[in-house]
From TrEMBL:
Every Radical SAM core domain range: 35-243
EC number(s) from the headed UniProt entry: 2.8.1.8
Catalytic class of the enzyme: transferase
GO cellular component, one term: mitochondrion
UniProt binding sites for [4Fe-4S] cluster 1: C21, C26, C32
UniProt cofactor(s): [4Fe-4S] cluster
First-listed, main subcellular location of the protein, grouped into a coarse class: mitochondrion
Keyword annotations: 4Fe-4S, Iron, Iron-sulfur, Metal-binding, Mitochondrion, S-adenosyl-L-methionine, Transferase
Record localization: Mitochondrion
GO MF: 4 iron, 4 sulfur cluster binding; lipoate synthase activity; metal ion binding
Lineage, highest ranks first: Eukaryota, Metazoa, Chordata, Craniata, Vertebrata
Cofactor note: Binds 2 [4Fe-4S] clusters per subunit. One cluster is coordinated with 3 cysteines and an exchangeable S-adenosyl-L-methionine.
SUPFAM superfamilies: Radical SAM enzymes
Protein name (Swiss-Prot/TrEMBL): Lipoyl synthase, mitochondrial
Length: 243
């Protein structure tokens, strides 16, 4: 695992920061955190606390209607920690905060600007919520100085209502990505879908070829539904276990 891993972990505890790497118990955490300037170390920081206002069925993060208030020191502390780690690439993501007027967009943007001020060489990706379709929030982040704007559609159109929180949908997600591109045309946008939830090849191809999707880079990954969360109705979804 190495010294860099331990340095990251200790700093996270000291500054009360959260990572998806830990919350999701990612098996690749040692590899990602163990690198350095020349080993391309990466980390995914989860902003705005560890409690989400939504309840997507694939996710194991805690949920609540009214999570604790934002930590005003988090943007500064996050930038301070990342600058000290010697990372080459960092992903800033967050829980959904539908309880906030802007969904936490300004908090996100402050974190990016703080980070870029301290470490201009670090590449910053923001994996954002959909902000309930509020494009002004999308614009706030798109113009914050980030390098990659990411937002996940999560699954094919036909499975959206079985996999994601009812407040999310593929058209709203695509509008987020589309607006980020419109606001900053040279910005790299990225989205991801999960495989292994019962989708067909035809549905995958339709998602890739759909209107407004061809300009975004796609990543694919399989997922095992969390055993402690309600699974999708078995009469509607066939789960495919991939070795």
């Amino acid at each position: 695992i190495g010294k860099n891993y331990n340095k990251l972990k200790n700093t996270l505890r000291d500054l009360n920061l959260h990572t998806v790497c830990e919350e999701a118990r990612c098996p690749n955490i040692g590899e990602c955190w163990g690198g350095g300037e020349h080993a391309t170390a990466t980390a995914t920081i989860m902003l705005m606390g560890d409690t989400c206002t939504r309840g997507c069925r694939f996710c194991s993060i805690k949920t609540a209607r009214n999570p604790p208030p934002l930590d005003p020191d988090e943007p500064y502390n996050t930038a301070k920690a990342i600058a000290a780690w010697g990372l080459d690439y960092v992903v800033l993501t967050s829980v959904d905060r539908d309880d906030l007027a802007d969904g936490g967009a300004e908090h996100f943007a402050k974190t990016v600007s703080n980070l870029k001020e301290r470490s201009p060489h670090i590449l910053v990706e923001c994996l954002t919520p959909d902000f309930r379709g509020d494009l002004s929030s999308v614009e706030t982040i798109a113009l914050s100085g980030l390098d990659v704007y990411a937002h996940n559609v999560e699954t094919v159109r036909e499975l959206q209502r079985y996999v994601r929180d009812p407040r999310a949908n593929i058209d709203q997600s695509l509008s987020v990505l589309r607006h980020a591109k419109q606001v900053k045309p040279g910005l790299l946008t990225k989205t991801s879908i999960m495989l292994g939830l019962g989708e067909t090849d035809t549905q995958i191809h339709a998602t890739l070829k759909g209107k407004h999707t061809h300009t975004h880079k796609y990543l694919f990954y399989s997922w095992k539904m969390d055993d402690h969360k309600p699974s999708n109705p078995t009469e509607l979804l066939e789960f495919l276990h991939q070795e």
